[in-house]
Write a structure and sequence with these properties.
Arc Repressor Mutant, subunit A; about 220 residues; transcription regulation; Rossmann fold; about 40% helix; CheY-like_superfamily; alpha/beta; DNA-binding
Length: about 220
């Protein structure tokens, strides 16, 4: 999952970014609202974690502008325990959920999965595709009931393709799932991970659309 974290508290931001990366996510962290707006306008993101009390441009303005632009990016708001009115205003402005500081990392991760799942139109916590069952919470994959071991990057590529069944994802989009701003991108990384996935799951699962990207065909009936 590619996450934009907008939080101006350095201690909190560093801890949350590190924790989410350890859980397998790609995290880019900004410390003010202007930087958040810039990132939202240029990056391919899966979810926004937003503190409403940001400098230079408050988080509520960032959220309202995002929704006025018609973007349906899932947004998880961070608020103080006593900021009830702020939470209400955030939800009314288009936030999908909120979490109260101080919070538990695993709760944040669960709420992120829940709001992205709702936006994708899924009610189940796992993604089923034929005889494949991918569990984002457990970071596990089974095929016909047998566990298939995947590396973190292989899992991220497969999760992105299964989440967007029927859509062609470009190499750039998949790279942005794997690498944050401060990480070097290996030129053929996506091709390597797709190759590994085909070896483990069959060569016909992931289709290459030459010159465009990769896709997994959408199943009409599960």
């Amino acid at each position: 999952m590619r996450i934009l974290l907008a939080e101006d508290d350095r201690y909190l931001g560093e801890g949350l970014a590190l924790g989410l990366k350890q859980l397998g996510h790609t995290v880019d962290w900004v410390m003010d609202g202007m930087a958040a707006e810039q990132a939202l306008s240029t990056e391919n993101l899966d979810v926004l974690i937003l503190d409403l009390g940001l400098p230079r441009q408050d988080g509520l303005h960032v959220l309202q502008k995002l929704r006025k632009q018609g973007k349906d990016l899932p947004v998880l708001v961070l608020t103080a325990r006593d900021a009830v009115e702020q939470r209400i205003e955030g939800l009314d402005s288009g936030a999908d959920d909120y979490v109260v500081k101080p919070f538990d990392l695993l709760e944040v991760n669960a709420r992120l999965r829940a709001i992205t799942r709702r936006r994708e139109g899924r009610s189940a916590s796992v993604i089923t595709y034929g005889d494949l069952v991918l569990d984002p919470a457990a970071r596990s994959l089974t095929k016909a009931g047998e566990e298939i071991m995947l590396g973190a990057s292989e899992f991220a590529v497969l999760e992105s393709l299964l989440t967007h069944q029927g859509r062609i994802l470009s190499r750039q989009v998949l790279e942005e799932t794997l690498y944050g701003w401060d990480e070097g991108v290996e030129s053929n990384a996506v091709e390597v991970y797709v190759h590994h996935l085909r070896k483990k799951l069959g060569k016909d699962l992931i289709r290459t659309v030459r010159g465009v990207g990769y896709t997994i065909q959408k199943l009409v009936h599960q």
